[in-house]
Write a structure and sequence with these properties.
This protein has a seven-stranded parallel sheet with strand order 8-7-6-9-10-11-12. Strands 2-1-3-4-5 form a five-stranded parallel sheet, covered by helices on one side. By secondary structure, it is an alpha/beta fold. It contains nine helices and twelve strands. The protein has helices at residues 13-22, 70-73, 90-108, 111-119, 142-153, 179-184, 205-208, 228-236, 277-293, and strands at residues 2-7, 27-30, 42-46, 61-64, 83-85, 134-138, 157-161, 173-174, 188-191, 215-219, 240-245, 265-267. α1 runs parallel beside α9 and α3 crosses α5. The longest helix has 19 residues, at 90-108. The two termini are 26 Å apart. It is elongated, with a radius of gyration of 21 Å. Bound molecules: NADPH dihydro-nicotinamide-adenine-dinucleotide phosphate and oxalic acid.
């Protein structure tokens, strides 16, 4: 098999080395040095240039190097035949939960305010440590479910919202048409949705207005879920009190973005959860061996749903 790795914006030394270890007999080409594209069977992709796969006429499998696949569906020339897979990894899932917990705890205990108080030697126990977070998780998939269950086990009030019905969950999971009800019960909103035609721009003023005043946003989905100007307005009017933003429409976030200096915004550089190169290489090589043997491929993306 001929495997082409087209991963941009990331150092993938360990990934390449591990892939070679696990697939010692396969031909592996690395972007931009991919000769003979017609012979490529499998592409491992992260943010490749649109249209680049048009000359890969015999492609069978496209593996996303991350959990998200919006970067693949963003290609208007995406070939329609290949199976598309994504990364599902316990390390990635646990890191995301830890990141969300970090945001929740810092919000709950007003850690930045406490730090300022300390600088002024001011003893003020009545911040909002009594404030009980009601955490609403938008997107109850691999990452959302683990985060929600963990927070629930820690004693937080948790609700979730997703597209298809879920059963036997120890808290409320709202259906797609119950978004308003879900938002009313939420004062810390976590976005763990994939970016699709249905979720683009979903974090907008109309949605923020349905949350209780003073709520917090934890945005770890994708930059295009959020209407930046709507967030800034919601913060300025105190409809939201704070927003943790890990993902942006343009990354790195441009210096002239107003988000950098909007009070209440905490910016992290897309580090909520990062693909582990070794486990990703092992997972993808196992799937490549499955393809070779004609066995079912794991972690397939639903092309109709777009995630
Ligand atoms: P999954 O595909 O496992 O889960 C997606 C969830 O979103 C599902 O619960 C799905 O509903 C729900 N959903 C999709 N469309 C809609 C819709 N229109 N309305 C309501 N719910 C919807 O994805 P993961 O949990 O693995 O990952 C989620 C996203 O997290 C990724 O796509 C990526 O954008 C982001 N991410 C961010 C990282 C970071 O570092 N910031 C790292 C990794 C991922 P249903 O259950 O009904 O199918
Ligand atoms: C991913 C990401 O989708 O890092 O894996 O955002």
């Amino acid at each position: 098999m001929h495997i082409a790795i087209i991963v941009t914006h990331r150092d993938i030394t360990t990934f390449i080395q591990t892939l070679h270890e696990h697939l010692p007999n396969e031909r592996i080409s690395i972007y931009p040095n991919i000769e003979d594209p017609e012979s490529v069977d499998i592409v491992i992709a992260w943010k490749y240039p649109n249209g680049y796969l048009q000359s890969f006429k015999n492609l069978k499998l496209i593996c996303s190097f991350g959990a998200g696949v919006d970067h693949i569906f963003a290609d208007p020339f995406l070939p329609s035949d290949p199976i598309i897979t994504r990364i599902v990894d316990s390390g990635l899932t646990i890191s995301m939960t830890r990141f969300i917990l970090m945001c929740v705890l810092n919000t709950q205990y007003c850690i930045f305010q406490l730090r300022e108080n300390q600088e002024r030697k001011s003893w003020q126990p009545n911040l909002s440590t009594q404030h009980e977070p009601n955490i609403g998780i938008m997107g109850f998939g691999v990452l959302g479910q683990y985060a929600a269950m963990t927070l629930h086990q820690l004693g937080y009030t948790v609700n979730a919202w997703c597209r298809t019905e879920k059963h036997d969950i120890p808290f409320d999971v709202y259906a797609q048409n119950e978004l308003s009800e879900f938002l009313k019960k939420t004062n810390i909103l976590v976005c763990l949705l994939p970016l699709t035609d249905n979720t683009r721009g979903i974090l907008n003023r109309e949605l923020f207005d349905q949350l209780p005043a003073g709520s917090t946003l934890i945005q770890v989905g994708r930059g295009f879920h959020l209407k930046d100007e709507d967030l800034i307005e919601a913060l300025q009017s105190n409809q939201l009190s704070s927003a943790w933003l890990d993902v942006f429409q343009v990354e790195p976030l441009p210096h002239n973005s107003r988000l950098w200096s909007t009070p209440g915004v905490f910016i992290t550089p897309h580090i909520a959860s990062i693909t582990n190169q070794r486990s990703a290489a092992i997972q993808i090589s196992k799937n490549i061996l499955r393809l070779k043997k004609g066995e079912p491929i794991l972690y397939k993306v639903d092309k109709t749903a777009g995630y």
